[in-house]
Specification:
Number of domains: 2
Largest sheet: 2 strands, antiparallel
Number of strands: 4
Radius of gyration: 17 Å
Distance between the termini: 48 Å
Strand order of the largest sheet: 1-2
Helix content: 40-55%
Shape: globular
Order of helices and strands: HHHEEEEH
Strand content: 15-25%
Structural class: alpha+beta
Length: 134
C-alpha cells in the first residue's frame, strides 16, 4: 500500500501518534488528574500535528538542508476541527524562522505570507471577541 504525505494527518495517524506519546509518558499520565490528562492529550495532539506535518512536507520536497540558502522555504498551516465551532490552527515553518529580537522574525516569502495570514486571523478573532486588534 502506498500512502501519501497527507495520510500522515489522517485521524488514524494522529490517534496513533497521540497514543504513542501517552504510552511514552505513561508514568506521568497515570498520576495526572482528569483535567490534566485532557490538557496533556491536547498538547500531545498539537505536537503530533506539528511533527507529522513536518514529515509530510519533507516527503513532498526534494532533500534539502537548513543551511542551503537556495532551498525553498515552506510554511504548512493545518486547520483542524476542535469540537463545536472551534478550530485548532497549527503552523510549521521550514527552515525555522529567524528570531530578530523585539518580536520580529525573518523568513522566506512563503513563510511571510503564512505569518500575515495567521496574524490577520488572530486580529479578526480578537475583534470578534470584542478585544482591540493589534
Amino acid at each position: 500500500m502506498t500512502a501519501s504525505p497527507d495520510d500522515l494527518l489522517s485521524e488514524a495517524a494522529l490517534n496513533a501518534a497521540v497514543t504513542s506519546l501517552v504510552e511514552r509518558n505513561r508514568h506521568h499520565f497515570e498520576s495526572m488528574t482528569e483535567p490534566e490528562r485532557l490538557d496533556a492529550v491536547g498538547h500531545w495532539r498539537e505536537l503530533a500535528v506539528s511533527v507529522l506535518t513536518a514529515a509530510g512536507a519533507a516527503l513532498q520536497l526534494p532533500a534539502q538542508t537548513d543551511s542551503d540558502p537556495s532551498a525553498p522555504g515552506r510554511a504548512v498551516v493545518v486547520f483542524e476541527d476542535a469540537g463545536g465551532d472551534q478550530v485548532a490552527v497549527h503552523a510549521s515553518f521550514f527552515p525555522e524562522l529567524e528570531d530578530l529580537g523585539g518580536g520580529e522574525v525573518a523568513g522566506t516569502p512563503a513563510q511571510a505570507t503564512a505569518l500575515e495570514l495567521l496574524q490577520g486571523m488572530a486580529e479578526a478573532a480578537e475583534e470578534e471577541d470584542g478585544e482591540p486588534g493589534g
